[in-house]
C-alpha cells in the first residue's frame, strides 16, 4: 500500500470533534495521523479549499441484486456510491430471493469484494421471505455478515413478530430497522393523503399510518430493551414521537432522506412518477419538522433510500409505477442546498450524520479518521457548481426528481482501504 499525504484540506472528523486545516496521512490501508509529517509520501493529494472527512456511510440502499439486475447491481450501486462520496453502504434485503439466509448475506459480501468499489454491508430480513409471518434465522444472518435487520419495503405489521425481532436482535447487539407504516391504511395509496391528493384525484397514504407504527414500535423497544431504528422518517408527529422516546431513554434512532427535507407533495401536480416514493412526499409542515428534528439531534442520521428502477418501469402511469428514487449521486448537493446553505446544519453536523452516527447504528468500524482506523476518506469540493444530469449517472437507473437542478458541492476524490477508487474527472 502506498503512503498518501492529503495536503492542506479542512479536516472534519466529528468522531473526535476535529475541525481544522491540516494534512492527513495514510499508509498500509490505515489512517496514520493528522498533522504529523512522514518522509517521502508516494502520493500527494492537494486538498486546499476542500473538505477532508471520513468516508461517508449510507445505511439505507437498495442494490437489487439478486433478482432485479436490470435496475441495479452490487457493482453498479457501489460505483454510484463512490461518485456520491460514499465509501460504505448497507444494502436492503428486498431482493429476489429475499436476503433471509446466511448464504444470501455471504453472496452480498462476496459480490462487493469482487467489485472493489464501496464497502457493502448486508442487512438481513426480519422475517422469512419478508412475509411478516415467521422470524428469519437472525443468528445465521449475523454469521453471514448481516449488520442489522429489516423487512424494508414491507413493514413488520405483526406486533408480536416485531417484539420477537427486537428481543432476539438484542442478543446480537443489532438494530431492527423498521419501515414504519400500517399497511391497512396505505393500500392502493400513491401519494400523501391530504389537500393535494384530493385535488389531483389520487389515492392517499395518511401520515397517521406512519405515526401509529412509530408509536407502537417505540413502545415495543421500551419493553424489550431492543435497538429500534426508524427508517426514512417523514411526518411531523413521527419526529415528535422519536423525540419523546429519546427523552424517556428508549433506544431509538431515526434517519431522514434528502427528498423528505427538500420536496413536498405539491411536486406531484405534474403526475411525474419520479416524485412517487414510499413513504410519500409530505407537506411543508412535515418538511419543517424533519429539518427541526435534524437540527436538535432527534434525527441523527442522513440516508438516501437509494431505490433504482429501470426507465421502462418508472415511465408507467403514476398509479402503476413503482415507488422510489435513486439518491447516492445526489446526496451531497441536495443536502448542501437544503440544509447547509439555509443555515439549518453546519458541515460538521452533516458529516456527523453521514459518518460516525450511521457507523454506530450498524456497528461497523468506520466513520472516523482516528490513527489506525481503516483509510476510508472522502475529499469534498464544497463550492464547485454543477447541474444534476441523470443521463450521466453511474447507477443503472435514472429515476431522480432532481434532474436539472443547479447545485454546488460534490465528491472530488474517494479513498477506500487506502486506495484511490474515484476521482472526479
Structure described in brief:
The chain is α/β, with parallel strands linked by helices and 425 residues long. It is 29% helix and 23% strand.
Key traits:
425 residues; alpha/beta; Urease, subunit C, domain 1; TIM Barrel; 2 domains; five-stranded parallel sheet
What features would you describe in this structure?
With 425 residues, this protein is of the alpha/beta class. The chain folds into 2 domains: 4-51 and 374-423, Urease, subunit C, domain 1 (Roll); 56-362, TIM Barrel (Alpha-Beta Barrel), CATH 3.20.20. It is 29% helix and 23% strand. It has 13 helices and 18 strands. The protein has helices spanning 74-83, 102-115, 138-143, 159-171, 183-186, 195-200, 207-224, 236-247, 284-296, 311-314, 331-340, 347-353, 356-362; strands spanning 4-13, 18-27, 30-34, 43-46, 51-54, 56-61, 86-91, 119-122, 148-149, 175-178, 191-192, 204-205, 227-230, 252-256, 301-302, 377-387, 406-416, 419-423. Strands 1, 2, 3, 4, 5, 16, 17 and 18 form an 8-stranded mixed beta sheet that branches. A 5-stranded parallel beta sheet has the order 9-10-13-14-15, with helices on both faces. The mean pLDDT is 97.
List the topology elements.
Elements lengths: L3 E10 L4 E10 L2 E5 L8 E4 L4 E4 L1 E6 L12 H10 L2 E6 L10 H14 L3 E4 L15 H6 L4 E2 L9 H13 L3 E4 L4 H4 L4 E2 L2 H6 L3 E2 L1 H18 L2 E4 L5 H12 L4 E5 L27 H13 L4 E2 L8 H4 L16 H10 L6 H7 L2 H7 L14 E11 L18 E11 L2 E5 L2
Parallel strand pairs: 1-4, 1-5, 6-7, 7-8, 9-10, 10-13, 11-12, 13-14, 14-15
Antiparallel strand pairs: 1-2, 2-3, 5-16, 16-17, 17-18
Amino acid at each position: 500500500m502506498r503512503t498518501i499525504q492529503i495536503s492542506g484540506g479542512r479536516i472534519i472528523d466529528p468522531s473526535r470533534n476535529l475541525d481544522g486545516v491540516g494534512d492527513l496521512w495514510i499508509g498500509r490501508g490505515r489512517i496514520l495521523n493528522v498533522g504529523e509529517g512522514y518522509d517521502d509520501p508516494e502520493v500527494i493529494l492537494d486538498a486546499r479549499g476542500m473538505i477532508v472527512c471520513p468516508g461517508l456511510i449510507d445505511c439505507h440502499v437498495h442494490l437489487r441484486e439478486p433478482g432485479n439486475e436490470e435496475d441495479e447491481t452490487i457493482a453498479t450501486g457501489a460505483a454510484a456510491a463512490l461518485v456520491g462520496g460514499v465509501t460504505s453502504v448497507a444494502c436492503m434485503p428486498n431482493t429476489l430471493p429475499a436476503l433471509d439466509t446466511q448464504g444470501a448475506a455471504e453472496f452480498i459480501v462476496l459480490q462487493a469484494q469482487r467489485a472493489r468499489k464501496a464497502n457493502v454491508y448486508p442487512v438481513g430480513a426480519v422475517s422469512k421471505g419478508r412475509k411478516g409471518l415467521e422470524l428469519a434465522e437472525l443468528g445465521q444472518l449475523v454469521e453471514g455478515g448481516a449488520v442489522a435487520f429489516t423487512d424494508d419495503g414491507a413493514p413488520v405489521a405483526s406486533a408480536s413478530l416485531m417484539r420477537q425481532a427486537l428481543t432476539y436482535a438484542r442478543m446480537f447487539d443489532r438494530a431492527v430497522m423498521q419501515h414504519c407504516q400500517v399497511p391497512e391504511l396505505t393500500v392502493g395509496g400513491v401519494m400523501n393523503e391530504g389537500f393535494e391528493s384530493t385535488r389531483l384525484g389520487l389515492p392517499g397514504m395518511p401520515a397517521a399510518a406512519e405515526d401509529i407504527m412509530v408509536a407502537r414500535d417505540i413502545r415495543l423497544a421500551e419493553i424489550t430493551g431492543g435497538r429500534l431504528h426508524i427508517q426514512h422518517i417523514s411526518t411531523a408527529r413521527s419526529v415528535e414521537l422519536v423525540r419523546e422516546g429519546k427523552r424517556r431513554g428508549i433506544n431509538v434512532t431515526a434517519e431522514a432522506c434528502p427528498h423528505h427535507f427538500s420536496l413536498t407533495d405539491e411536486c406531484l401536480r405534474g403526475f411525474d412518477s419520479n416524485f412517487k416514493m414510499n413513504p410519500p412526499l409530505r407537506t411543508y409542515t412535515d418538511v419543517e419538522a424533519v429539518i427541526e428534528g435534524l437540527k436538535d439531534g432527534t434525527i441523527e442520521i442522513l440516508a438516501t433510500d437509494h431505490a433504482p428502477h429501470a426507465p421502462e418501469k418508472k415511465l408507467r402511469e403514476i398509479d402503476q409505477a413503482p415507488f422510489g428514487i435513486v439518491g447516492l449521486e445526489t446526496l451531497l448537493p441536495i443536502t448542501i442546498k437544503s440544509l447547509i446553505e439555509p443555515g439549518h446544519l453546519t458541515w460538521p453536523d452533516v458529516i456527523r450524520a453521514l459518518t460516525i452516527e450511521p457507523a454506530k447504528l450498524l456497528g461497523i468500524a468506520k466513520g472516523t479518521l482516528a490513527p489506525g482506523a481503516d483509510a476510508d476518506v472522502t475529499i469534498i469540493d464544497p463550492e464547485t457548481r454543477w447541474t444534476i444530469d441523470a443521463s450521466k449517472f453511474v447507477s443503472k437507473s435514472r429515476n431522480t426528481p432532481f434532474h436539472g437542478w443547479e447545485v454546488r458541492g460534490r465528491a472530488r476524490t474517494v479513498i477506500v482501504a487506502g486506495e484511490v477508487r474515484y476521482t472526479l474527472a
